[in-house]
Design goal:
This protein has 323 residues and is an alpha/beta fold. The chain has a single domain, classed as Metallo-beta-lactamase, Chain A. The chain has 9 helices and 13 strands. It is globular, with a radius of gyration of 18 Å. Mean pLDDT is 89; it is low at 1-17. The structure holds zinc ion (ZN). Zinc ion binds next to loops.
Length: 323
């Protein structure tokens, strides 16, 4: 197992072990048991909450960024396992897409999920019950291969910007040990505090690299309560998408083709955003840290879908650029 010495300007989780939290049999059984109810009686949208949302609008932007989705293979997953109660189409694509953003001041990668030998180095740390459903296909592309396919050398990257710290959003960094990371302070606390990593966390992808923590210290943006303007020019704005993990963020980008929100795992697929349907209880109950908060965040995404292109990280069709 790889490791590194703590370094950089922020905390690097030096007191935490590399172990992962186990999943209880009870939690797994409850999640499985909820599947039929989710299919036939999905949790309905909260129309009152939706109607009460205030849209603060987009931040004024002085700079345009370029966005590219890195090549990645997708697999087919039954739709009811992605979005409760959605039966058509019967299956949807699921991928672990990473993104490269080019700003005049920096080039960075969002959600670098896949490293070389990812099954041995990252998936092996995921609890068995989850491993069976999240295991990527054997021919999944690691981050450096994907970068190479679009003509970017790893040395051209200035930093990584994960939406959250689940393994499939940071494991690619196991191949880029020196690359700095920018991360929401709340998320870093959640992932790196305590003896064991949270379910789905891979601390080795975080430890030992320069880390620049940020707070969501800016005003409301769109329907999101807090924000952080990464370059102080409105081109890259991080917005609060809590629930899936406590510090999950969305990356709102001002592109030449309009605003795009990389939404991480606040939703797995655009069908969830369109229909306001939470993830199926298995594995959703096991990976959403706070299901109620995740569902509220889904309402916030639904409310802006007409004005902003919302891209869940795992939805390969939403990530198909240019659009
Ligand atoms: Zn996640």
């Amino acid at each position: 197992m790889m490791d590194g010495a703590p370094s950089g300007s922020g905390r690097s989780g030096g007191r935490a072990s590399d172990g992962a939290s186990p999943l209880g049999i009870g939690a797994c059984c409850a999640a499985l048991g909820g599947l039929p109810r989710g299919i036939f009686r999905p949790t309905p949208p909260d129309r009152e909450f939706l109607a009460g949302l205030h849209d603060a609008g987009l931040p004024p932007a002085r700079t345009v960024v370029n966005l590219r989705a890195l090549p990645q293979v997708s697999r087919s997953v039954p739709t009811p396992f992605i979005a409760e109660g959605v039966m058509a189409p019967h299956s949807v694509g699921s991928a672990m897409t990473a993104f490269v953003v080019e700003h005049p001041e920096a080039t960075f990668v969002v959600d670098p999920g896949i490293c070389t030998h990812v099954r041995q180095r990252a998936v092996a740390e995921v609890p068995l019950a989850l491993r069976l459903v999240v295991k990527p296909p054997a021919h999944v592309l690691d981050l450096c291969t994907s970068l190479e396919q679009i003509g970017i050398r790893p040395a051209q990257l200035d930093f990584a910007l994960p939406t959250h710290l689940h393994w499939d959003h940071v494991a690619g960094l196991l191949d880029l040990l020196e690359l700095p990371m920018r991360i929401h302070a709340t998320e870093l606390d959640w992932a790196m505090t305590g003896d064991l990593a949270p379910v789905g966390g891979v601390r080795n992808a975080v430890r030992g690299r320069p880390i620049d923590e940020y707070e969501l210290d800016g005003p409301p943006v769109l329907t999101f309560a807090r924000s952080h303007d990464l370059f102080d020019d409105g081109s890259v704005t991080l917005v609060d998408l809590p629930g899936h993990t406590p510090g999950s963020v969305g990356v709102l980008l001002h592109t030449a083709r309009g605003p795009v929100l990389l939404a991480g795992d606040a939703a797995w697929h655009s069908l969830q955003v369109e229909h306001i349907r939470q993830k199926a209880s298995f594995p959703g109950n096991l990976v959403d840290e706070d299901r109620a908060e995740t569902f509220r965040t889904l309402h916030r995404l639904h409310a802006i879908r007409g004005a902003v292109r919302v891209v869940p990280t795992h939805d390969p069709d939403a990530a198909r650029f240019p659009f």
